[in-house]
Amino acid sequence: MKDRITIEGRDGAFGAYIARPKTLPAPAVVVLHEVFGVNTDIRKTCDELAEQGFLAVAPDLFWRQEPGVDLSVTSEPDWQHGLRLYQAYDRDAGARDVKDTANAVAKLSGCTGTVAVLGYCLGGLMTFLTAVRYGVDAAVVYHGGDTEKYLGEVDGLDAPLLMHLAEEDEFISKPAQAEIKTALARKSKATVYSYPGQNHAFSRHNGAHYNAAAAALANERTSEFLHQQLR
Question: Lower CB density within 10 Å: C or N end of the chain?
């Protein structure tokens, strides 16, 4: 399938969705999914990034547990399925997978060798962990749940980082958001934006809390940041 590739990671091989821009070679963005796997929403995000001129690749983070997860954000059984995967997910192994993906993507014939990592919720946390532990060319985090638990690792962050936080996020408390902002304020290349009145996943296509204006603002900031850092 032309929109799928295989990543040969240090712990094994796993699949990824790929969206290619019209003009190659191009800088790449590794897109990390939420608890729903590489679903319609994540594939659409990759397609949108490709339209902006990036090579976009979304690896299957759940490959160890259940390869090929593709869940619906509007189905309660799918939510429960995704939460079970999330709770059992090995974050340390996952960060290695993300770095392996970035390394593999950098070597693709259509890539300039520059790679950003961008993630949502679980993927946002994994973006942060990969950036602080292994380094990336640039990082974008959308409402990364549990980020506050790993702020002790923030000294490892050298990459430019852009973070989007929803002020009314039901999964990231206001005290947790304050801790994240305080920790990242020490890093000159980190920028944190807050979105007043917004809930978790306000930028998710077809999500219950989707807000077109806030999503457009966040995505515009992301696009500007990626073009600035990767070009």
Answer: N
